[in-house]
Structures are given as C-alpha cells and as structure tokens.
C-alpha cells in the first residue's frame, strides 16, 4: 500500500490512519533516511492512538513512552544500536510484553528483532513530498485516509 504526501501534516495523517488498525503488541518498523519523516509519521500514530503528550525524536533517549492513548506507544530510535543484541539489552522483551505499540526508527539496525512487523518505508521525493509504503499484513487493507 502506498501514499504520496506533500507536507508533514499529510505524513502525520497517514500515521493516524494506520493507528486506527493497530493492536496491542504490534511493531511498526520504519525504514528511511535521516529527515525522511519518521518522527512526523510517529506524531500521527500517537494522534491516532489518542496520545496527548507531545511527540519528540528519541535519538538521545533510545525510547520515548506515550501512555495516555487507547494503547501505549513506545517510540524507539535504533540509530545508535549496532545489533539486535543491543536491543535485547535495553529491555525490548519487556516492551513487547507491556501490550503497547512499538514504533521503531532505524529498524534496519535490528531487523532480526522485527518479527511480524508492519513495515513503513518513507522516501523523500522533494522538500516536503514523501512516498510512504506500508507492508506486512492483511489488516493494512483497512488503512484509509
């Protein structure tokens, strides 16, 4: 499934649409270059899940938790991790067991831990334009803007 967006707000809208079909325990694994819009997409996920906290990039904290929505959202940034061993070392299994949605930036650094993930690939087409591709499950057919 593919979407073309022309602003950060439209990228957020795709994230919000995906959030409507997410279930506890889902993993949303992002692929995309620096500045592609992964955090904007996550802002949309948080909105769609009903989270009230402001969403920021977890670059320096590894994970940000947003607990006010219908499902908790755990937003990871794996940029500084070198393997899935590092991920298990920070308590990945505990996050999976907590019944939230795990949104993972730089998932390519920990691919072997992304079992059954919904893959979100974001490509920059221009300054504000993005091509967003969603893959990984029959539920995606229900994503509607």
Low-confidence stretches: none
* Sheet with most strands: strand arrangement: 1-7-6-2-5-4-3
How would you characterize the largest beta sheet? 7 strands, mixed
State the helical fraction.
10-25%
Per CATH, which architecture?
A: 3-Layer(aba) Sandwich
Radius of gyration: 14 Å
User: What is the fold named in CATH at topology level?
Assistant: Rossmann fold
Count of structural domains = 1
User: What are the secondary-structure elements, in order, as H or E?
Assistant: EHEHEEHHEEE
CATH superfamily: P-loop containing nucleotide triphosphate hydrolases
Shape: globular
- Overall pLDDT: 91
Top-tier CATH class: Alpha Beta
Strand content: 15-25%
What distance separates the N and C termini?
12 Å
β-strand number: 7
Compute the number of helices. Answer: 4
Kindly name the structural category. Answer: alpha/beta
What does this 3D model show about the protein?
The protein has one domain: 3-Layer(aba) Sandwich (Rossmann fold). The chain has four helices and seven strands; from the N terminus they run βαβαββααβββ. It has helices spanning 8-19, 38-49, 84-89, 92-97, and strands at 2-5, 27-31, 63-66, 73-77, 101-105, 118-124, 130-135. Strand 3 (63-66) and strand 4 (73-77) form a beta hairpin. 25% of the residues lie in helices and 25% in strands. A seven-stranded mixed sheet has the order 1-7-6-2-5-4-3.
Question: In short, what is this structure?
Answer:
By secondary structure, the chain is an alpha/beta fold. It has helices at about 10-20, 40-50, 85-90, 90-95, and strands at about 1-5, 25-30, 65, 75, 100-105, 120-125, 130-135.
């Amino acid at each position: 499934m593919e979407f073309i967006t022309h602003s950060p707000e439209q990228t957020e809208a795709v994230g919000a649409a995906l959030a409507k079909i997410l279930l506890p325990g889902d993993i949303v694994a992002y692929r995309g270059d620096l500045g592609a819009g992964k955090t904007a997409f996550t802002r949309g996920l948080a909105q769609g899940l009903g989270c009230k906290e402001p969403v920021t990039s977890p670059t320096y904290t590894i994970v940000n938790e947003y607990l006010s929505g219908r499902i908790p959202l755990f937003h990871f940034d794996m940029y500084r991790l070198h393997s899935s061993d590092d991920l298990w070392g920070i308590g990945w299994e505990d996050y999976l067991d907590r019944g939230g949605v795990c949104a993972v930036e730089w998932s390519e650094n920990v691919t072997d831990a992304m079992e059954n993930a919904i893959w979100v690939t974001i490509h920059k087409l221009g300054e504000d334009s993005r091509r967003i591709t969603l893959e990984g499950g029959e539920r995606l057919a229900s994503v509607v803007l």
